[in-house]
Write a structure and sequence with these properties.
The protein is 37% helix and 19% strand. The protein has helices spanning 11-22, 44-48, 65-85, 105-118, 159-172, 189-200, 213-220, 237-243; strands at residues 2-6, 26-30, 53-56, 91-96, 124-129, 146-150, 153-154, 176-177, 180-182, 187-188, 205-209, 230-232. Helix 4 (105-118) links the parallel strand 4 and strand 5. The mean pLDDT is 94.
Length: 252
């Protein structure tokens, strides 16, 4: 198969490309560094030509609703238009667990994306994932000795496990709303951050912050956890730390 990977240079995208190639398929990267601007559609038609399926793992880091909705709406609309014009038989889209219930700005963007995919005229699969193991790391990059970390109960998953499942769906064919994927352990995001800090040997005070209102209640009360039957990833947070060369002692 020839599979186009939108966002193929990102965290999940790199794993998707590697998984496709390891399975003997041809991966075509759709990204700015490969001559495609997904927010405008420039270069997309040419790159997409001849593909059998598309895996969309494009992403933007934002908490602003307008920014998220605009980004996911534009990129998804361009992908759908190009896929229809080339007769592509399957669009696999990565979304997030809780996208339909948690009112964070980013999640509104994923809702808009899912709606476009469902009504886009291209056979589709949407896979919702929990947060990745890398989620707290950008928040720890500041030089401040005090780091504010939102209270979030999650069931984090390895990006590689998600990539494997995305490729599996692309090969199997359209299935609509797929079973969600989550990791094998539940973690408080604050505890994950503290473990990273300890493993790195850094001196940081991680201070938990509860977001106000319904959003805060959703984040702490299970809104980010999978519902019903779900696919469980194989790798643990300890596996992730070991893979990046950090100690895996469990002390928090």
């Amino acid at each position: 198969m020839r599979v186009a990977v939108a966002g193929g240079t990102g965290l999940v995208g790199k794993h998707v490309v590697a998984e496709l190639e390891a399975a003997g398929h041809r991966a075509v990267v759709l990204a700015r560094s490969h001559g495609v601007e997904l927010t405008t559609g420039v270069g997309l038609e040419e790159k997409l030509s001849g593909s059998d399926a598309v895996i969309d793992v494009t992403n933007i880091v934002t908490t602003r609703k307008k920014t998220a909705v605009d980004f996911f709406s534009r990129t998804t609309s361009h992908l759908l238009s190009a896929a229809r014009s080339h007769g592509i038989g399957h669009l696999v889209t990565l979304s997030v667990v809780g996208s339909d219930t948690v009112d964070l700005g980013y999640y509104h963007g994923k809702r808009a994306q899912e709606e476009l995919v469902r009504d886009g005229g291209v056979p589709w699969t949407v896979l919702r994932s929990t947060q990745f193991f890398e989620f707290p790391e950008p928040l720890l990059d500041s030089r401040s000795p005090v780091v504010l970390m939102p209270r979030m109960l999650t069931q984090p998953v390895a990006a590689r496990d998600v990539a494997e499942k995305l490729v599996e769906h692309a090969i199997q064919g359209p299935s609509g709303m797929a079973r969600e994927i989550a990791g094998p352990e539940r973690w408080e995001m604050v505890d994950m951050a503290r473990r990273v800090v300890r493993a790195q040997g850094r001196r940081r005070l991680v201070v938990p912050v509860t977001l106000p209102g319904k959003v805060g209640k959703a984040l702490t009360g299970g809104g980010l956890l999978p519902r019903g039957e779900y696919v469980e990833g194989r790798r643990t947070f300890g596996d992730h730390l070991a893979s990046v060369g950090l100690p895996t002692a469990t002390g928090l």
